[in-house]
Structure formats: C-alpha cells, structure tokens
Amino acid sequence: MAFAPLDPLLHNQLRLAIVSLLVGVDSADFNFLLEKTSATRGNLSVQITKLKDAGYVTVKKTFKDNYPNTSCSLSAKGLKAFEAYVKAIKVYLGTGED
Amino acid sequence: MERELTPSESLKLIETMISQAKQSFHRQSFYFLLWGALLIAAMIFNYVMAMQGSPIGSYGWAVVGMVGGLLSWWRGAREAKHQHVHTMMDRMIAWLWAGFLATLFITMLGSGISGDPMNVGAIIVLTGLPTFLTGQLMRFKPLILGGILFWVLGAISFFVDMRAVALLYIVAMFFGYLVPGYLLKRQEDGLRTA
C-alpha cells in the first residue's frame, strides 16, 4: 500500500485546528479561533498568515464597534486540501481507500 | 502546539474542532418567546374587541407587527456586535423566517386590499412551515412538534367558528412558539453560544 504524503501545511496541530474549525462555518473571527484553539495571539496570527499565503484561507479585516476585526473563511482550495488530507490520514490509519 | 501529529491524533483533532464549531450557534429562543407572547396578546385583543363589536381589534396586529419587528431588529443588531462566527445554519434560519414574513405580509396585504380576508387557519398552517424547518435544522424536537401542531390546529381551524379559531390560535402559539422557546432558552443557557 502506497502512503500519500501528508500536506505539510495542514500537518501541524494549530493550522489543522484552524482549518477544521473553518470547515464547519461560513466564517469565524480571530477571537473565536483564539478561544477554540487555546493558542497564543502571536502564534495564531502567524499560522493564519501561512494559511492565507497558501490560498487555503481568506482573511477579511474590518472594523466592528470601532475595533479592528479579522474574519477568516476557508477557500475552495483550502477545502480541497483538507479533504485530501483527511483521505490521506484515513489511508494511514487503514480506514480509507488507497 | 508545534509537535508532529500522528494520523490518529490528526483525526481526533479534526473531529474535536468540527464538533466545537457545531456548538457555536446563535440564540434563537428570544424570537420565539417574543413573537409567541405578542401574537397571543394580539389575538386576545382582537377577540375581545370583536365580541364588543369594536372594529379596532385588527389594529392590534399592526401594533404587534411593529413592536415585534422593532424589538427583533434591536436584538439582531445587538447580537451581531457580539457575533464571532457565522454558520450556514444561522444563515438558512434567518432567510427562512425572512421569506416567511415576506410571504405572510404580501398575502395579508393582498387579501386586505382586495377585501377578501385571509382565513386564520391558513395563517396557522403557513406558520407551521418555518417552525417545523427551524426545528429540523436545529435538530430540536419541541420546534418540530410545534410545527406539526400548527399544521394540525390550522387544518381544524377551517371547520370551526371564530371563537374556536381564536382559541386554537392561542393554543398553537403557546405550544408552537412559547413552550419550544422556553425549552430552547434552557438549552441555550446550558451551552456556550457564539
């Protein structure tokens, strides 16, 4: 059985957590991701930027109640990469198709 | 959170995060409690005025529509400020009720202008649709049952006199909006909401 290489961008705990959260919602703001992942602000910001640069996540910066607000959503490319990643780890675990 | 993940840890993390996101819904109970109370009050007012031969009973519906609309708008705007996540379910529920209100408004306006008053039974039946679908979307049984109750009591309303229709309307609103709204509030208070 040949194992497909895991997407290095998604094979990281925090980035995978961010993408998994975004899979189930239309969009989520920075504070929501911060609360759910329990990451530090700095690390979360860095990982979101990496996902954004790869085209996996779309980031929208707006103002909410006069405060800056960062809203993230999963792009079509990000969703495709996530699906491929899930398929690949299922193969690793022997629960998916090769 | 930087160490290498094993495939089983990855899968577990994905499942946990997806489940976390699923729990992040917006509070809906306020609207059911508000509209349930207002519509029951309007029907009682309408009925009492009709019994006294006064023509002002129908104005109660207009007042309730305006008060309910303003309070719903205020609540929606306030919640939007604290909203950290947007889900497809919230969007679907919002558009479902907006579509229902547009349908109801056009039908009632048209029947009012044409002088062919809309049967209250038809309004109760129509109300069953968004209630039932909201219950299905949220997987919340009291609202599903509430929607079915609207359909059953609405169907009966076509064959009874005005006094019984008023009573059926109040019963439908009580068990279709107020009771599920109260149960939903209890559930929402017990969960973390977005």
The CATH architecture classification of chain A is Orthogonal Bundle
Q: Number of DSSP helices of chain B?
A: 7
Number of domains of chain B: 1
Distance between the termini of chain B: 24 Å
Low-pLDDT sequence parts of chain B: none
- Specify the CATH class of chain A: Mainly Alpha
Q: Outline of chain A, from the CA principal axes?
A: elongated
Rg over CA atoms of chain B: 20 Å
- The secondary structure category of chain B is mainly alpha
**What is the oligomer described by this structure?**
heterodimer
Structural class of chain A: alpha+beta
What is the average of the pLDDT values of chain A?
A: 89
Helix-residue proportion of chain A:
40-55%
Strand content of chain B: under 5%
User: Which superfamily, in CATH terms, is the homologous superfamily of chain A?
Assistant: Winged helix-like DNA-binding domain superfamily/Winged helix DNA-binding domain
Distance between the termini of chain A: 7 Å
